[in-house]
Amino acid sequence: MLNINKSEALLASIRNGETLTQRDKLSLIISLSLPSMLAQITSVLMFYIDAAMVGRLGAQASASIGLVESTTWLFGSITNAASLGFSVQIAHSIGANDFARARRLFRHGLIATTVLSVALCLGVMLISHPLPYWLGGKTDIAGDASLYVMIFSFALPFMQLSNLCNAALKSSGDMRIPSIVSVMMCVLDVMFNYFFIFICRLGVAGAALGTLSAIIASSSLSAYIAIFRNKILRLKQDTKAFQWINDYIRNALKIASPMAMQSILMGGAQIVSTIIVAPLGNFAIAANTFAITAESLCYMPGYGIGDAATTLVGQSNGAGRYDVCKSFARMTVFLGMAVMAVMGLIMYIFAPEMIGMLTPVEEIRQLGSTALRIEAFAEPMFAASIVAYSVCVGAGDTFKPALMNLGSIWAVRLTLAALLAPRYGLPGVWMAMAIELTFRGTIFLIRLFNGKWIKLNK
Questions:
Q1: Which residues of 98-116 are buried (b: 16+ CB within 10 A; e: fewer)?
Q2: What is the pLDDT of residue 50?
Q3: Tell me, what DSSP letter sits at residue 242?
Q4: How distant, in Å, are the alpha carbons of 137, 332, 339, 421 from that of 344?
Q5: Which of 202, 4, 300, 238 is nearest to 107 (CA)?
Q6: pTM over the 0.90 mark
Q7: For 366-390, how does the pLDDT look when each residue is reduced to its tens digit (9 = 90+)?
Q8: Which of 110, 141, 406, 458 is the least buried, fewest Cβ under 10 Å from its Cβ?
């Protein structure tokens, strides 16, 4: 992996219009991808360990968290979309060597996203009690599920702060700090969860409190480094008085709104998927949740490469280097597909062991293993959709890719899941998912190669 100075020199070469060889580009992709991949994997390990700890409490506790997990992901993804609305502009400004504008955008992002996240926190608190019943949960798991959501709501402002600061750091080319913070959060989550779940004997509530504590600690560190330490972003470099600029907010809304709407509708699709699974029973709910968590270990490398793609395409776009944009786009997508093809093979071979680490219940293990082996065949095309979408985000092209994601998951996945679940049970739901991911990867490859995503920014 490249050292920090070499990575910074190559990023500066993009901004300054210098020529990069294919070897330089590949080295830069790997240099930026590896820390982000580590961050993504450790983040999933956190959920994996959470699930394993809760799994020791029994199927009922696992089902109570599994029932609302898709909803918590939905609200978390909204905070991520809001962060990207500003971080994409920050990347473009850095690519154009306008560091002062990047800092102004960062200030605006801190203010605007704080207001948004507090509003989300209040909204989630209000719906925490009826939510499990809306999702089709029974009385035996609804109480724990509601309590989990209530505690989770307090994490949203800190999650938003972490997402914005880490996204801004990545846009500046610093992938190491977000990775280190992610690893720290994973370690703290294990410690806090063990304390609250087993020492304090708080069960499901303990899992929520442990995650909340880890998020608070890690977000504080990310904010400190981005605001006070990063060479490009640290705010004390500015000497002029802060002035509110509405155009920054409008541009952020233009970038983030399609992504937020996509997050809402895709999160809604996950909720609908949960509703489809819920009638199959608590074993199916738990197996579905564990399989999703286990699969995440395999597709997180794709998101790590996607982070690198967003940074590289964003800075190349800001510098007006459209040829470099396209080269980075192709290279990152094919690298992502290759890595996730290997991960898919590993997932197919070790599916029983991956689920077995999460639960001692044999029926859940069998259902979860079957789901993972079905999904393994779709991993390369899933990578294509992940990284190609990240390429589009880096270029500021979010509307049509959002429609593509939404059309695929609602028209293909949910329709097939509703048709296959009554006959094939949980495996039918995962067959629908594998077919949909293959379709989605195909349409994103078509968009990548037709080049229309880059023309929007010429």
A1: ebebbbbbbbbbbebbeeb
A2: 67
A3: P
A4: 32, 18, 9, 23
A5: 238
A6: no
A7: 999 999 999 999 999 999 999 999 9
A8: 458
